[in-house]
Amino acid sequence: MKKPLLITLVILAVLLLIPAVSFIRWAFQEKKPIDVVILDKTVPTLDRLGHRSFIYTLTNARFVRGEKGGSFSASRDYFGFEPLRPVREKQFRKRDFRLTELIDLAENNDALYYTDTYGVFFNDWYQGIKKTRRSRKLYGGLNNNDYLLLVEMKRRDKLVLVEYNTFDYPTAGLEKFKTEELLGLSSKGWMGQYYKSLDTVSQHGAPAWMPALYRKQYSEPWTFTKAGVVLLNENSIIVMEEGKQLTTALPVIRTNGTEAQKFGLPESVPFINSFDIIDPGKNNVISEFVLNTTPEGDSLLAVNDLKAVFPAVTQEPLKQKTWYFSGDFANNDIPFWTARLKNIQKGGKAMLYSDHPDDPKRFFWLYYKPLITSIFTEYQAGTTGK
After folding, report:
1. First and final CA of the chain: distance in angstroms?
2. What is the pTM of this model?
């Protein structure tokens, strides 16, 4: 056998051996039984990105479905909006909590995670329709049964995680008020998003409907072209552009040294998904969003009773089992085939994410995955006495 061919075969063998060994190590880890209720009302595609990375995290950490013992499934193990095959026929099903099920769900499950309650709208579901800020709702918003399940889980001291946009449109005012009161925090009504370009004709630019809203409020044309952050509430818009209101456009999540060490988090990580702005009340603030504002940016925020630093992750201070994530944390496009490989991040970092600040995968690997793993590991250890 020729030497170059032999070297090639050896390299291929090593490349196949590494994932095989990693899978075996994953498979022989101790299983951690836990029953979780997952709610995702924003599932416009079969990718199920709104909760798939959460399922990935549970699977990789070897959490399994209670007594059944099998791994969690992103396509089956959730409530919410379910697209049906074939997708071209645009059929869907609603998996809702029935009032008669709530007590059994709370009794028989260990944790509850509302990854996304926003929903699916006409323009999201039917392709080729002109995009507007809002269209007719097909399904979505936190309803009374969703609220009552939160009450029952908290009453039993179960683990509760609630994520971005739970309080705002299209959630009705009464459910918003009751849920804020239950969680001990309140929404300021503002939501934000980072854009690589504020030019609405750019591939990664701001939505085409924003200039009209801006002109209506400020009576000025939309001239923004650089990267930036846009903040929105019911009737208002704030545009912050890099080089003017922002020194750098990319928001970051900052965690102090003690909390970063406890949960295995970096002290700073960029965040490119949507976020909302809340008043944490008496909740512990674990991490904060930071907008890198200039004095002009600080003044613009102050006029609207806002600041450049606001909560990203809060934790109920007494039982410490209820969490609110003020960003679209669970929405990550992750290669699910790597979920059953132990320590994949250590061996395959170059394949999983880059060092570029606005690489969307960095947030999952550096922040979301270690945070969720730590929360669930700590909770299970407390309930099992280990």
Report:
1. 55
2. 0.93
Q: How many angstroms separate the CA atoms of 352 and 202, rounded?
A: 26
Q: Are residues 62 and 75 in the same domain?
A: yes
CA distance 280 to 297: 23
* Residue 131 DSSP class: P
User: Among all chains, which residue has been given the structure tokens 């990664």?
Assistant: 204
- Indicate if the pLDDT at residue 151 is higher than 70: yes
AA identity, residue 257: G
Distances (CA, A) of 220 to 213, 216, 223, 303, 332: 10, 8, 9, 18, 36
Are 115 and 146 spatial neighbours (Cβ–Cβ below 8 Å)? Answer: no
**Residues 156-202: tens digit of each pLDDT:** 999 999 999 999 899 999 999 999 999 999 999 999 999 999 999 98
**How big is the chain, counted in residues?**
386
Place of tokens 């674990």: 286
223 and 244 share one domain = yes
**Does residue 262 share a domain with residue 161?**
no
Find residue 186's DSSP bridge partners. Answer: 279
Residue with tokens 């399904």: 139
Asked if 146 and 97 touch (Cβ cutoff 8 Å), the reply is yes
Q: Which helix (H) or strand (E) holds 6?
A: helix 3-27
| Residue at 79 is within a domain | yes
Same domain, 36 and 163: yes
232 in the same domain as 124: no
Does residue 282 lie in a domain region?
A: no
Number of domains in the chain: 3
